[in-house]
Amino acid sequence: MVHATLAPGAEITLPWREEFNGLAYVLAGRGTVGAERRPVHLGQTAVFGAGSSLTVRADEKQDAHTPDLEVVLLGGQPIREPMAHYGPFVMNTRDELQQAFEDFQKGRLGTIPAVHGMTGSGPGAGADGA
């Protein structure tokens, strides 16, 4: 897994094992991925096809509030097992999926603590919005 921040116009090419799956998730900004230069932007996921490298390029012009392209690149060897998914949950069977959802609803999956000093109305904001 790689978290990369690319300045406008910058490009990164990472060597990649051909037998691995690969994907890019865009955290901020706009750019292109792959040899085909498929466009991507905030919140999108791109799945790479077979190849010996992963390439991501930041657009020359970015929005003022997101001056760079930020992506997370990840992947691994395919597990070649059945897959069931619902929302953020991915399991092997429908029964495992139902159990994971039940565990989530009952609070068994833990929590992510709020970031101290965070302001605004998003996750981690206090009752007064700060």
From TrEMBL:
Pfam families with a match to the protein in the record? Pirin_C (PF05726)
**What residue stretches are annotated with the Pirin C-terminal domain?**
1-109
Gene3D superfamilies attached to this UniProt entry: Jelly Rolls
Q: Which domain of life is it from?
A: Bacteria
Protein name according to UniProt: Pirin C-terminal domain-containing protein
Source organism of the structure: Streptomyces haneummycinicus
